[in-house]
Amino acid sequence: MTNNLVWLQQWFYEQCDGDWEHMQQIYINTLDNPGWSIRIDLLETSLENENFNNIRIERTDTDWLICRVENHTFMGSGGVFNLNEVIEIFKNWAVSVN
């Protein structure tokens, strides 16, 4: 099984064409509840016009995640131990449409 963070690094590298990386970004931030958020710009990628089914999972107060795509941006957030799962959701979607 490929590590999801390693996969995300490879996906980012594959998007870099000398221009894309100057305008589009991947942001990973912490939340104060506590948790994580990730934002991945999809413009000028093979995913920019693909449909994504919103995901909302609430297992407990600390084990939760929300993923959606709006305005050509993948946005995910989750509990303090859910960052890997959010990246995996993005990965599974990206692989399924390519």
Explained architecture:
With 98 residues, the chain is an alpha+beta fold. The mean pLDDT is 94. The two termini are 19 Å apart. Strands 1-2-5-4-3 form a five-stranded antiparallel sheet, with helices on one face. It has one domain (4-97). It is built from three helices and five strands, in the order H-H-E-E-E-E-E-H. It has helices spanning 4-15, 20-23, 83-97, and strands at 26-31, 35-41, 55-58, 64-70, 73-79. The longest helix is centred in the C-terminal third of the chain and has 15 residues, at 83-97. The protein is globular, with a radius of gyration of 13 Å. Helix 1 (4-15) packs across helix 3 (83-97). Helices cover 32% and strands 32% of the residues.
Fill in the keyword field for this structure.
alpha+beta, 32% strand, single chain
Assign a percent range to the helix content: 25-40%
Instruction: Based on Cα principal axes, name the global outline.
Output: globular
Largest sheet: 5 strands, antiparallel
How many domains, as an integer? Answer: 1
- Strand segment tally: 5
How far apart, in Å, are the first and last alpha carbons?
19 Å
Mean pLDDT: 94
In DSSP terms, counting alpha (H) and pi (I) runs of 4 or more, how many helices? Answer: 3
Structural class: alpha+beta
Weakly predicted, low-confidence segments:
none
SSE string: HHEEEEEH
Strand numbers in spatial order across the main sheet: 1-2-5-4-3
**Radius of gyration of CA atoms, rounded to a whole number:** 13 Å
Share of β-strand residues = 25-35%
